[in-house]
């Protein structure tokens, strides 16, 4: 009887251990580290909206035409280094932005360069990037990123008005200055300065947008460059003034956000003729 009792206790202990291990494993799989980056692409299959980090460099993934996905790579423009990214013809860049570090008070802290893509054609597609200073030659010691996509599905036709000749992005704004004209009603504009990544990229002035939400003006300054152009790899400074529609505003404090860079101004009185 003792032998049977010990055997039963051993079986219970084994069962308990298996249950605990399963719980721990499930908790570990659910934890994404708080990064918001999809590091668990099931069987290397991209889902619509997936975001990948640099850890996926060198991988091959399965994907479908028409889907969107993004790649987030650490970048520190203050050092002069930047990612130079290229894609095959079946991949379209629909978003290009720089996300500054969470603590912008830390001098020299790195942020993230984020591209958003749409898969336009089937077959084997490729994304490659190299991290270097634009004016330096390639040595072979640079950090690189590569991703191969095996795509299935029908090719996606460009939307009306989309000729596919340009790659669109978001301007990297370093500083803004709010300009207040000494007049009444008060007229205000915001002067944005920064650097474009190469000699082909320009400010897409026709598509600059300004949207007021509460007491905040959100200004988006986009860029564009010819898709197949061979560009000089050198930073190009830019400066652009964007008028703000402030007529009729009540007196108070207002914030201006231009591509993530903020400043504020105050109206001493209601900005309206009486």
UniProtKB/TrEMBL annotation:
A molecular-function term among this protein's GO annotations: cysteine-type endopeptidase inhibitor activity
Q: Which UniProt keywords apply?
A: Protease inhibitor, Thiol protease inhibitor
Q: Where is the signal peptide?
A: none
- What are the residue boundaries of the Proteinase inhibitor I42 chagasin domain, all occurrences included? 62-148
State the superkingdom.
Archaea
Looking up PROSITE patterns in the UniProt record yields: PROKAR_LIPOPROTEIN
Listed InterPro entries: Chagasin-like_sf, Cys_protease_inhibitor_I42, Prot_inh_I42_chagasin
**Mind telling me which Pfam families this protein's record contains?**
Inhibitor_I42
The question of whether Oxidoreductase is a record keyword is answered with no
Keyword Protein transport in record: no
Protein name as catalogued: Proteinase inhibitor I42, chagasin
Q: Which organism is it from?
A: Methanohalophilus mahii (strain ATCC 35705 / DSM 5219 / SLP)
